[in-house]
Amino acid sequence: MAGDSAVRLLALSGLFPVYKPKGPTSAQVVAQLKGSLLKEAGLKEYVKKRKQTLKIGHGGTLDSSASGVLVIGIGDGTKMLSTMLAGSKKYTTVGELGKATDTLDASGTVTEEKPYDHITKEDLEGALKLFTGNIMQVPPLFSALKRDGKRLSCLLRDGAEVEAKPARPVTVYQLSLRDFQPPVFTLDVECGGGFYVRSLVNDLGKALKSCASVKELVRTKQGPFTLEDHTLKEEDWNISRIAQALQEYGPLLPAEPGNKRLKKENADNTVGSGE
């Protein structure tokens, strides 16, 4: 049975989403998933000259303090992850006015506190218009962006001095206020690749002549995958369930070169598994 499971695992190819809980990093979630699948298949990890027993990765870092959709590429599906990095994403975030932190969210140290009593719901809704469309945004210092091969967040935690990356163009397709109970507010955001919700909330606080930071962040959609309808939770991280997901979700992916072949392989592998 272990041999059959190994064959089925190594034949998997495509994209599927998992639920990333609050706490672990995206890389840790991928490592946990990979470890579970290798254990089920009776395989050991093997890495030599960039060749791995099982090719698996994610399509866009989700902050450790955030939860939600994390798109996984397996087998040749890892070659398709770039489409997830550049594609549309949706988030729901809870921000807090009057408080700024070094990480721009609740995981960091408070660096500034300002009054927020002057801010009305109308003020907040008006400010959102400034951050809709094609805008320029400065990424957070605490981020997965790299300098000299090391993540900025790691450099900062090691005590190194880090300069902010220059502002870069990003796209916000939709931005709306769901709830406003001062100092807390809830936003729904749909954006393109390279966008940071933490920077948005920080910039929003400044635009309102106060400050703000993220209390909670949930990625509700990435590409065609939604949190409610598609994500696999930890109890579903097994070969059979992932094979089923690849077959079900394959038609959701854009018909780009290579995708048709991957969809056919996934369908053939699932049918042939006897599950």
UniProtKB/TrEMBL annotation:
- Signal peptide start and end residues: none
Catalysed reaction, written as an equation? a uridine in mRNA = a pseudouridine in mRNA; a uridine in tRNA = a pseudouridine in tRNA; uridine(55) in tRNA = pseudouridine(55) in tRNA
Q: Which residues form a coiled coil?
A: none
* Chief location bin: cytoplasm
- GO BP, sorted A to Z: mRNA processing; mRNA pseudouridine synthesis; tRNA modification
Which InterPro entries does the UniProt entry name for this protein? PsdUridine_synth_cat_dom_sf, PsdUridine_synth_N, tRNA_psdUridine_synth_TruB
As one GO molecular function, the record gives: pseudouridine synthase activity
This protein's GO cellular component annotations are: cytosol; nucleus
What are the entry keywords? Acetylation, Cytoplasm, Isomerase, mRNA processing, Nucleus, tRNA processing
Ranges where the record places region Disordered: 254-275
What SUPFAM superfamilies does the database record attribute to this sequence?
Pseudouridine synthase
**The EC number(s) this enzyme carries:** 5.4.99.25
Question: Domain Pseudouridine synthase II N-terminal spans what residues?
Answer: 49-197
**Compartments where located:** Cytoplasm, Cytosol; Nucleus
Q: Which family does it belong to?
A: Belongs to the pseudouridine synthase TruB family.
Q: In UniProt terms, what function does this protein have? A: Pseudouridine synthase that catalyzes pseudouridylation of mRNAs and tRNAs. Mediates pseudouridylation of mRNAs with the consensus sequence 5'-GUUCNANNC-3', harboring a stem-loop structure. Constitutes the major pseudouridine synthase acting on mRNAs. Also catalyzes pseudouridylation of some tRNAs, including synthesis of pseudouridine(55) from uracil-55, in the psi GC loop of a subset of tRNAs. Promotes the processing of pri-let-7 microRNAs (pri-miRNAs) independently of its RNA pseudouridylate synthase activity.
Q: What is this protein called?
A: Pseudouridylate synthase TRUB1
Organism of this sequence: Xenopus tropicalis
